[in-house]
């Protein structure tokens, strides 16, 4: 039992961060796309994420919270070595989060400023998150190669988020904005593929440990479903994005694009989890070495088992309340 | 000048938490005001399904302030959750077994609850029934209060640690009940909840008074102002009473903090209360002191000749005296000003008189008085905890991260600039909202509720 608790919490942490990426990813992607839209469309884009972003961002707090609660020894090392990107990300998230309200309340003369800050905050947060993921995969290394790899993931992250954001707009909007969202997705879909490919190629190159895990038989064959499912999901996205107009009007169209992106994210998460396990910091510390005391873990385990299903249930409820395409819009 | 990374890390943490606490202080109180406005409307609905619109107007105006304030609280709170790891890794490495679960429960029981139902509260009014909306509003208010429960439990445990034992240099759990309900927790929790109610009460009364002065008020404005004044007049004396109990508790568990609050240098029976003076740690005396004989002993021990232990008993292990001494006096001064103003205003209401322009101006001046008292009170509590991170157990210099002074200085200045900009924007935006004519002045169509279940308001 004592051995299972760290495993449970590393799973819960992975789940929380995965949910964060697919949910706040669309918020941040829409923020990055904001300057490309006209004024009325900007309002619609923000209305499409307004009821959700706060809870979406909370998954990040939960992910970091579990790192802190369950793996206090790793928490300090990870966050200390990522000091600057974490600080930048936080500032980005601050600007993005407050811009929702300020852009409609701070007066018409300030609206352009807050729209720009909304965009800047979303972009800074995305880039910093990419950098953090990259640095984390290299085991928080500080060689030139590690930094290059982190920079590569930093610029890949916005491509993924733009795809998620476009897909969310396909779910929530119609008319001219729907068509623009489709155009944005067509532009971003190739850069996203290149970025994902580069990351997949570079990861075993920067880490011998990860290379050994993937390129030894029979593991390599057992792992094939991960790249294959990703490729299949990607092909479906491509097919969907270039359908004729009457096809795309189906209500499930946006959801299909979004679901395929989620599949790619699941595969990336599984791949990452396989690459790292059982380490919490690659090559330095395992989840068992980093774990908090069993009494501590047991206390939080009880709470997590009770509250997490409730949280998921009311998250689904909130999404149902706000389901469907945007209708009337009113700002004051 | 040599940059001291410890001092910079402390300044950065103090800056972050000072900025953060401003917003939850308002939302924790304001959430219950909003629920009250919604309940009053709901109870006024007659058999034809028509309710008293003025309560809805009150809700619509203040929910906008709530949404903005909540957003600022959320984003600055996310920063807080990372700060423990980025700047104080040693804290989690030694106390993670205790601090971690308390913070974890805050996320699980409070953050998701308030964040999820906030969406329905702000944007779902046309999409759900009145009853569901009321439930969502209640859950948001409860979520903000749960959040205060957990974080104050952790803070209080750092002030009065119990229920643990040390093993391999780490805090281990002996009893969760003793950890969560540690000796100073009930006092600090209720002191903070009352502070939130008072802060929100003066905010709503102050902004409403400002609206009256500028002639953009309506019946809803008056009702809100009345509600704020009555809450303030009831809570202000209760708060002074709770504060007194909190002080007695601190004297028992953290005598060095109380000695610094009162600038008492030598242990004495029948200690005087220093109204004003300049505590000087080099000469270990208070210059230009104006004192009330026996008052400190009377207040602290409720006996004229009760013993108050002096700072010299704790030399080298007591907090810096002047900041604690001054913060305490500022908190007291604002607290008593709140009592006087709220009673003056309540007395005016009781006699069915209109608020005079003078009273309106004073209320308007007091709009943000809660912030001043809350910050001053927290400085007493937190600076007064120094040099300890966990009182009597772990010193702050043992747990700081080894960043270079330059790095921390850079991020500190960046945070300071960002927060100054946000604070100015926040206050300016509340002013813009305040100057909008009341709904009853522009209301031409019946019903009058803002359209569109998806509006960001």
Question: Care to give the gist of this entry?
Answer:
Chain A has 332 residues and is mostly helical. Chain A is 80% helix and 2% strand.
Structure overview:
The complex is a heterodimer of chains A (332) and B (457). Chain A has one domain (4-321). Chain A has a two-stranded antiparallel ribbon. Helix content of chain A is 80%, strand content 2%. Chain A has 15 helices and 2 strands. Chain A has 332 residues and is mainly α. The mean pLDDT of chain A is 89. Chain B contains 14 helices and 8 strands. Chain B has 457 residues and is mainly alpha-helical. Helix content of chain B is 68%, strand content 7%. Chain B is globular. Chain B has helices spanning 5-44, 53-87, 89-123, 130-159, 176-180, 185-213, 219-253, 255-262, 295-301, 321-350, 357-365, 369-383, 405-434, 439-442; strands at residues 164-167, 170-173, 268-269, 273-280, 285-292, 307-308, 388-390, 394-395. Chain B folds into 2 domains: 5-267 and 309-442, no CATH class; 268-308, no CATH class. In chain B, α3 runs antiparallel to α4 and α8 (255-262) packs across α10 (321-350). Classes of the chains: A mainly alpha (332), B mainly alpha (457). Chains A and B meet through α3, α4, α5 and α15 of A and α2, α3, β2 and α13 of B.
Sequence stretches where pLDDT stays below 50 over 5 or more residues of chain A: none
Q: Please identify the structural class of chain B as seen in this structure.
A: mainly alpha
Q: Give the tally of structural domains of chain A.
A: 1
- Report on the biggest sheet of chain B: 2 strands, antiparallel
- E-strand count of chain B: 8
The dominant shape of chain A is globular
Largest interface: A-B, 71 and 73 residues
Number of strands of chain A: 2
The percent range for strand residues of chain B is 5-15%
Topology (elements, then pairings):
The complex is a heterodimer of chains A (332) and B (457).
Chain A: H1 4-33, H2 39-49, H3 53-70, H4 72-81, H5 83-105, H6 111-137, H7 144-172, H8 176-206, H9 208-214, H10 219-222, H11 225-241, H12 245-248, H13 253-276, E1 279-281, E2 285-286, H14 287-290, H15 294-321
Antiparallel strand pairs in A: 1-2
Helix pairs in contact in A: 1-3, 1-6, 1-7, 1-13, 1-15, 3-4, 5-6, 6-7, 7-8, 7-13, 8-9, 8-11, 11-13
Chain B: H1 5-44, H2 53-87, H3 89-123, H4 130-159, E1 164-167, E2 170-173, H5 176-180, H6 185-213, H7 219-253, H8 255-262, E3 268-269, E4 273-280, E5 285-292, H9 295-301, E6 307-308, H10 321-350, H11 357-365, H12 369-383, E7 388-390, E8 394-395, H13 405-434, H14 439-442
Helix pairs in contact in B: 1-2, 1-4, 1-6, 1-12, 1-13, 2-3, 2-7, 3-4, 4-6, 6-7, 6-11, 6-12, 7-8, 7-10, 8-10, 10-12
């Amino acid at each position: 039992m004592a051995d299972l608790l760290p495993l449970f919490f590393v799973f819960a942490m992975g789940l929380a961060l995965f949910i964060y990426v697919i949910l706040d990813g669309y918020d941040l992607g829409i923020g990055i796309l904001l300057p490309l839209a006209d004024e009325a469309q900007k309002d619609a884009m923000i209305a499409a994420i307004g009821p959700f972003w706060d809870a979406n961002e909370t998954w990040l707090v939960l992910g970091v919270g579990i790192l802190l609660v369950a793996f206090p020894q790793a928490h300090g090392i990870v966050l200390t070595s990522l000091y600057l990107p974490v600080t930048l990300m936080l500032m980005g998230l601050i600007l993005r989060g407050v811009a929702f309200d300020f852009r409609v309340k701070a007066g018409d003369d300030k609206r352009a400023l807050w729209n720009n800050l909304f965009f800047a905050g979303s972009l800074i947060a995305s880039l910093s998150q990419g950098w953090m993921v990259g640095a984390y995969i290299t085991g928080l290394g500080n060689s030139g190669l590690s930094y290059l790899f982190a920079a590569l993931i930093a610029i890949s992250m916005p491509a993924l988020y733009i795809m998620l954001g476009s897909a969310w707009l396909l779910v929530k909007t119609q008319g001219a904005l729907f068509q623009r969202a489709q155009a944005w997705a067509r532009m971003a879909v190739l850069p996203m593929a290149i970025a994902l490919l580069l990351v997949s190629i570079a990861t075993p190159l920067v880490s011998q440990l990860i290379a050994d895990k993937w390129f030894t038989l029979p593991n390599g064959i057992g792992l094939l479903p991960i790249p294959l499912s990703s490729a299949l999901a990607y092909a479906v996205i491509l097919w969907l994005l270039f359908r004729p107009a009457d096809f795309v009007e189906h209500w499930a169209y946006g959801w299909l694009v979004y679901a395929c992106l989620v599949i790619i994210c699941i595969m990336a998460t599984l791949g990452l989890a396989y690459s790292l396990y059982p380490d919490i910091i690659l090559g330095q510390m395992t989840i068992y070495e980093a774990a908090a005391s069993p009494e501590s873990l047991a206390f939080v385990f009880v709470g997590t088992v009770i509250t997490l299903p409730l949280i998921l249930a009311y998250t689904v409820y909130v999404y149902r309340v706000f389901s469907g395409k945007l209708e009337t819009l009113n700002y004051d | 000048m040599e940059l001291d990374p410890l001092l910079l890390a402390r300044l950065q943490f103090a800056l972050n938490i000072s900025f953060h606490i401003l917003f939850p202080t308002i939302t924790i109180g304001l959430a219950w005001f909003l629920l009250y406005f919604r309940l009053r409307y709901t109870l006024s609905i007659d058999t034809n399904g028509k309710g008293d619109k003025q309560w809805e107007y009150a809700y619509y105006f203040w929910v906008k302030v709530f949404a903005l304030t909540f957003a600022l609280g959320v984003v600055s709170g996310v920063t807080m959750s990372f700060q423990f790891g980025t700047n104080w890794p040693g804290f989690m490495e030694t106390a993670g077994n205790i601090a971690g679960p308390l913070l974890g429960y805050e996320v699980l029981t409070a953050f998701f609850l308030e964040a999820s139902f906030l969406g329905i509260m702000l944007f779902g009014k046309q999409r759900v029934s009145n009853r569901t909306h009321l439930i969502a509003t209640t859950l948001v208010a409860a979520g903000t209060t749960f959040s205060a429960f957990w974080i104050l439990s952790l803070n209080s445990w750092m002030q009065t640690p119990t229920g643990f034992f040390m093993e391999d240099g780490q805090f281990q759990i002996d009893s969760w009940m003793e950890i969560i309900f540690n000796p100073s927790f009930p006092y600090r929790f209720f002191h903070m909840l009352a502070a939130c109610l008072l802060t929100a009460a003066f905010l709503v009364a102050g902004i409403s008074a400002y609206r009256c002065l500028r002639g953009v008020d309506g019946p809803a404005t008056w009702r809100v102002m009345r509600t704020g004044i009555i809450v303030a007049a009831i809570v202000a004396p209760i708060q002074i009473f709770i504060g007194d109990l909190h002080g007695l508790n601190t004297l028992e568990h953290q005598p060095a903090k109380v000695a610094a609050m009162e600038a008492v240098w030598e242990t004495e029976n029948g200690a005087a209360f220093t109204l004003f003076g300049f505590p000087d740690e080099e000469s270990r005396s208070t210059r230009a002191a104006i004192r009330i004989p026996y008052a400190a002993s009377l207040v602290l021990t409720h006996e004229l000749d009760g013993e108050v232990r002096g700072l010299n008993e704790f030399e080298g292990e007591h907090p810096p005296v002047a900041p604690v001494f001054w913060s305490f006096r500022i908190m007291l001064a604002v607290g008593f000003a709140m009592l006087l103003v709220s009673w003056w205003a309540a007395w005016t209401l009781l006699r069915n008189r209109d608020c005079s322009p003078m009273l309106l101006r004073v209320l308007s001046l007091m709009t943000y008085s809660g912030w001043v008292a809350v910050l001053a009170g927290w400085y007493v509590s937190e600076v007064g905890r120094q040099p300890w991170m966990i009182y009597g157990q772990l010193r702050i210099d043992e747990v700081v991260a080894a960043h270079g002074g330059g790095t921390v200085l850079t991020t500190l200045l960046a945070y300071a600039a960002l927060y100054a900009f946000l604070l100015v924007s926040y206050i300016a935006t509340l002013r813009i909202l305040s100057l909008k004519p009341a709904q009853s002045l522009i209301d031409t169509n019946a019903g009058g509720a803002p359209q569109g279940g998806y509006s960001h308001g």
